[in-house]
Design a protein that fits this description.
This protein is mainly alpha-helical. It has a single domain (2-395), classed as Na+/H+ antiporter like fold, CATH 1.20.1530. Helix content is 73%, strand content 0%. The chain has 18 helices and no strands. Helix 1 packs across helix 12 (261-287) and helix 4 packs across helix 7 (145-169). The longest helix has 27 residues, at 261-287. It is globular and about 60 Å long.
């Protein structure tokens, strides 16, 4: 009973933080801080290192499910049409340049003992917080025209490609298991795609799903949660990687939903951003090692500078002749904004033993600084286009304000 009470007390404290974060942003409009920053800060305050109102241990299963939803929604929100456009190709090239630079720099840092698992740190330096950025960019009219297309593309690749790399290099223990994990994900994607054909309009199964998706049964959401929990359970049992599976499942779900996509998006937002994902970020805040940051603040500043150098600087070169100098600087700042995937990656790295706790804490702290500073600077530099270039930006998936 004491364990149950401890779990409920911790969940209550987390729920208070999750509820107060958007309320505070609504009451103080000038406080232009993404919710994820407040959730992390709230987790630090209620965690064992400050007020000790909650413990991360009893809520870890829910946090794992929230982590799965982070990657599921990231996969669901990626617009697959980007890969067939020049914006997508340039975004891929920019990320690959970032990866090469990151591996070179962190290899040197590893040789000096600054980091141990340099692959984990390198990947953390190549992520982009597109889900956090889109609401800010949309509010300031930065998703229109030529610049908007490139910003969305570079952000999408900053989510997708690091997730693929994380799944291959960090979440598995051997090359055989890596191949098995990727094969399982491919089989899953094929099965889901084939299953989607059984939901053709007019079929009995399609009718059942359509009739019950808005009732108390919430059948489409339940099957989505079943898919995610099944992935987490199977991968845990067979020591495979859930990250790539959840991400690919999200991508397949988007195609699977068809005409029901808007309704499913709303349900996923409610389940994910309304409940599970805030738990994950507050939990992550509780696990941040404040003593490690206080003992070595220069480590945080070093990672902050590396995020701008590694992820942002390639944009100044890749987009020459495509974007103006001011727009390239804006793209650099947006590309280097990283937090949600950094939090998720550091959690995976710490649990796997592939990342030092002090590096995990410094990376998350550096990510918070990028979210606080870089989008604001990009907005200040923005000059709206007088003639809006035709673009499919409005057709791209919307990202919840996390």
């Amino acid at each position: 009973m004491e364990d149950v009470g401890s779990a409920l007390d911790s969940l209550l404290a987390i729920a208070v933080v999750a509820a107060l974060a958007p309320l505070l942003l609504g009451l103080v409009p000038k406080l232009r801080i993404p919710q994820v920053v407040l959730l992390l800060a709230g987790g630090i305050v209620i965690g064992p290192q400050v007020l000790a109102l909650a413990s991360p241990v009893p809520v870890e299963p829910l946090a794992d499910l929230g982590l799965g939803f982070v990657f599921l929604l990231a996969g669901y929100e990626i617009d697959q049409r980007l890969y067939r456009r020049d914006t997508g190709r340039r975004a891929v090239l920019a990320w690959l340049v970032s990866l090469v630079v990151a591996l070179g720099i962190t290899a040197v840092l590893s040789a000096t003992g600054f980091v141990h698992a340099f692959v984990a740190v390198a990947l953390a330096l190549t992520t982009t917080a597109l889900g956090t950025l889109v609401p800010i960019l949309r509010e300031n009219g930065m998703l229109r025209g030529r610049l908007g297309g490139h910003l969305l593309a570079t952000g999408a690749m900053g989510e997708l490609l690091p997730i693929l790399a994380i799944a291959v290099f960090l979440g598995i223990s051997s090359r055989f298991v890596a191949l098995l994990s990727l094969a399982a994900v491919v089989v899953l994607a094929v099965l889901l795609s084939v299953a989607a054909r059984t939901f053709r309009p007019g079929s009995r199964l399609s009718g059942v799903l359509r009739e019950h998706q808005h009732e108390t049964s919430q059948i489409t959401l339940r099957f989505t949660v079943l898919l995610l929990v099944l992935l987490l359970a199977v991968t845990e049992r067979f020591h495979l990687d859930a990250v790539l599976g959840a991400f690919v499942a999200g991508m397949v779900l988007r195609r699977w939903a068809g005409r029901s996509a808007p309704a499913l998006e709303e349900k996923l937002d409610v389940a994910g951003h309304g409940f599970l994902i805030p738990i994950f970020f507050v939990y992550s805040g509780m696990t941040i090692d404040l003593h490690a940051i206080a003992a070595a603040p220069l480590r945080l500043l070093a990672f902050f500078g590396l995020m701008l150098l590694v992820r942002g600087m390639p944009a100044l070169l890749i987009y020459v002749g495509v974007l103006s100098a001011r727009e390239r600087v804006q793209t650099m700042l947006v590309s280097a904004t990283a937090l949600p995937l950094v939090v998720a990656l550091t959690q995976i790295g710490v649990r796997n033993g592939t990342m030092l706790p002090e590096n995990a804490a410094a990376l998350v702290g550096a990510g918070v600084l990028t979210v606080l500073l870089f989008p604001t600077l990009a907005v200040i530099l923005h000059r709206p286009e007088k003639v809006g270039a035709a673009t499919d930006v409005e057709d791209l998936p919307r990202h919840p304000a996390v």
